[in-house]
C-alpha cells in the first residue's frame, strides 16, 4: 500500500475520487448537494489545492483512496487554535476495511503535526454511519452539531 502527495499529474485521479465521494455521500445524504460540481469545477479546484502550501492532497495506491486536508486560516475568536481540517476522504468500495483509510489518516496527522496544528476537525453527515465509525475509531468526538430542518 502506498500513500503519496499529489502532483499536478495526479489531479485527474484526485478529482475522480472526490467526484465519486460527492455521488456516494453528498448525493445520498444532502438533497441540496450539487453532485455535478466535481465534473464542472473539480479539476481547477483540486489543481489549486495541490499547489497550495497550506493544503494536503493525498492518493492511496494511485487513486484507490484520497484525502484532502487544509490548515484553517487563523480565527481571531479562537486565537490559540491551529486547526487542521480533514476536508474530504474516500476509499474505493472494493478496497475498504483493508487499512487504506487508516494509512491516509496517519499521513494527515503527521502533516498536521509538522504544521504545528493542535486541533483536527472533520464534518460528516449524521447518517453516514461508516464515516462516523471510522472517525470515532481515530479519536474524534462530536464538538459542534449542525441541526437542520426544511
Ligand atoms: C470512511 C472510509 C474512508 C474508511 O476507509 P477504510 O479504508 O475502509 O478504513 P480502514 O480500513 O482504515 O478502517 C480503520 C478502522 O475504522 C473503523 N471503520 C472503518 N469503516 C468502518 C465501518 N464501515 N463500520 C465500522 N467501523 C469502521 C474500524 O475501527 C476500522 O478498523 P478495523 O477494520 O480494524 O475494524 C471509507 O469507509 C469510505 O470511503 N467511505 C465512503 C466515503 C465517506 O463516507 N468518506 C467520509 C466522508 S466524511
TrEMBL record:
InterPro entries: Acyl_CoA_acyltransferase (IPR016181), Bact_Acetyltransf (IPR050832), GNAT_dom (IPR000182). Residues 1-150 form the N-acetyltransferase domain. Keywords: Acyltransferase, Transferase. It holds the Pfam family Acetyltransf_1. This is GNAT family N-acetyltransferase. It comes from Amycolatopsis melonis.
Amino acid at each position: 500500500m502506498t500513500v503519496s502527495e499529489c502532483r499536478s499529474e495526479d489531479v485527474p485521479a484526485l478529482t475522480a475520487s472526490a467526484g465519486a465521494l460527492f455521488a456516494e455521500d453528498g448525493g445520498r445524504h444532502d438533497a441540496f448537494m450539487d453532485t455535478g460540481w466535481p465534473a464542472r469545477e473539480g479539476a481547477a479546484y483540486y489543481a489549486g489545492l495541490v499547489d497550495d502550501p497550506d493544503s494536503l492532497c493525498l492518493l492511496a495506491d494511485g487513486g484507490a483512496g484520497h484525502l484532502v486536508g487544509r490548515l484553517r486560516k487563523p480565527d481571531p475568536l479562537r486565537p490559540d487554535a491551529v486547526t487542521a481540517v480533514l476536508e474530504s476522504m474516500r476509499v474505493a468500495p472494493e478496497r475498504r476495511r483493508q487499512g487504506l483509510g487508516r494509512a491516509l489518516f496517519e499521513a494527515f496527522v503527521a502533516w498536521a503535526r509538522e504544521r504545528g496544528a493542535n486541533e483536527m476537525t472533520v464534518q460528516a453527515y449524521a447518517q453516514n454511519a461508516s464515516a462516523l465509525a471510522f472517525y470515532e475509531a481515530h479519536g474524534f468526538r462530536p464538538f459542534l452539531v449542525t441541526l437542520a430542518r426544511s
